[in-house]
Design brief:
three-stranded antiparallel beta sheet, globular
């Protein structure tokens, strides 16, 4: 490999978990397994996303609208709409590319939203396939456990009991358990895939290594992560109340958190 071919953001191929790697001539270091941060950092990720997009707010609003329209069109296409989860990491990779360029040059290049279709497509599709598989697993578990609840209700009714009592007594706990299991499976899915697009796009990591590092970083930051999703969920909910207009700002801000969370855990200055 020539010096010109060398990507300073690519970590060494040998195992270097938790060992910072200096990124070329910059003052930054890449932390392969991610670093643990204080719980309050979960809120700072949102603040950092807002500060990041604020200088180019108009462009980020346009970015959010473009992505929303694309996803709406996909959702209306039979069969293809089922694969939205598979396609989404390609756009997340594009958002990461936009953020990286804005950080370096100060410019927002909306065309990079589609850069994942030209570079790292296989790995980004792999991330989507993992998330899609986890969603299918969550649905199966929900139906299996929830189906048991429905079966208990049916048996109670056929035995001459009060169906409503059967539902309350035998099914309530099972329905709650089904929901809980589904949420746990979803959380595992997000843990595996949240940071993977950034690691693939910025550091050219292979799919397996990116997913492994994403899971490692999440395991070290469960409390900040839960706080982040709680606060972000509240912000998105409140912003949607005035006819959804607030989402014009908060949706792009949520997209930018893919980058700020990655920078917070994997880059040391």
């Amino acid at each position: 490999m020539t010096q010109q071919d060398h990507n300073p953001y690519t970590p060494p191929e040998s195992s270097v978990d938790d060992v910072a790697v200096v990124l070329g001539k910059t003052s930054e270091s890449f932390i392969p397994g991610g670093q643990a941060v204080p719980a309050g950092e979960g809120v700072n990720w949102i603040t950092q996303a807002w500060n990041f997009m604020k200088p180019k707010l108009g462009m980020w609003v346009v970015l959010g609208i473009v992505l929303f329209v694309i996803l709406m069109i996909i959702s209306l296409i039979p069969f293809l709409n089922i694969l939205t989860a598979v396609i989404m990491p390609i756009f997340v990779g594009g958002i990461i590319a936009i953020c990286e360029k804005q950080r370096i040059t100060g410019e927002v290049d909306l065309g990079l939203l589609f850069s994942g279709f030209q570079k790292n497509l296989g790995s980004l599709l792999g991330v989507g396939a993992i998330m899609f598989g986890i969603m299918i697993l969550a649905i199966i578990v929900m139906f299996v456990v929830g189906g048991s609840a429905m079966l208990a209700m049916s048996m109670g009714s056929q035995a001459g009991g009060d169906p409503s009592m059967a539902m309350a007594g035998a099914s309530g706990g099972m329905v709650f358990l089904a929901f809980l299991l589904m949420m746990v499976i979803y959380l595992v899915g997000y843990a595996l895939t949240w940071f993977a697009p950034a690691l693939i796009v910025v550091h050219n990591l292979p799919l397996g290594q990116a997913v492994s590092m994403s899971l490692s970083a999440v395991k070290k930051n469960i409390i900040p992560g839960l706080l982040f999703f709680l606060v972000m969920g509240i912000i998105l909910f409140v912003s949607a109340l005035p006819f959804g207009l607030g989402l014009l700002i908060t949706l792009p801000m949520f997209l930018a958190t893919y980058y700020t969370t990655y920078r917070s855990l994997f880059i040391s200055k």
